Amino acid sequence: MEPRRSIGWPILLGVVLIGSIIVLGVGWVLVSIAAAFGSGNAAFYWVILGVGVALLVLLLVGVIIYLFLTVKAIALSQRQSNFIDSVTHELKSPLASLKLYLQTLNRRQVSPEQQADFHRFMLKDIERLDTLIDHLLDAAKTIQRRSRRGEGAIDIEPILRQTRDAVAHRYGIEPSRIVLGPLPEGGANVLGRPADLEIVFRNLVDNAVKYSLPDSEVGIEVECAARGQVVVRVSDNGPGIPTAERTQVFRRFIRLGSELERSTAGTGLGLYLVKSIVAQLRGRVSVAGRGAKRGTVMEVRLPGGRA
What we know:
Blueprint lengths: L7 H29 L5 H66 L4 H33 L8 E3 H16 L6 E3 L8 E3 L2 H18 L6 E7 L4 E8 L33 H11 L3 E7 L2 E11 L4
């Protein structure tokens, strides 16, 4: 998805650190020799001492940078491993289900009612695979393109309604469970492309429905804020996100908890897509709790515009 980072810098830094250690060692040897031959070489002594201290400082800075890069690489490797686990699970589960239904239909006679049920279940599995592929393609396109605002102001209401209906259809729930609050008078227009805005709000509403309690409602609120901004809040009554981890959920491949023990589908790319696209649109996304209530509120601030 992201271009592979070159390992040239870590190798070059390692070579420089080794060379610095060698030079520092030789320098201290020369200092010791100069000190051993008396005070006549005092100037030489201080010059070598200064060079040795400077090299030592550079060595410490290099070690710190190298440690930072190493920790960052390890963290990325862990997130990629988490991503592989989630994608493997997302691919294996619907494929195993499709295989079971097809084997059943091929090996024995089933009633027309059972055939209809099998076809419905297989269609849901295919939609799940299609959603996963779209998610990965969205991530690839978002990472590779340049930052831009879009071609003009877009009315946000049709996009939110389409998103609500699409998510409700995906999870087989009534659209009325996704409550779209009243929009500001005169509508709400934001600068951006419809495809980008659809990705942002589809991921937010999808997450809200996925993690909400059964038969509970998901709320979508829109308001016009200061400096011409449009604010969209998507709220749910799910388990919530711990305060210490609220900034982490927008990173690539991040999903809270153990990948092998979770019950909800996902790849850890949804909120990363949201943050990336909102940043390209010169907006901001944040996550907060609901005070004394259970759940999470995802807030997106986007620059407004005139249609």
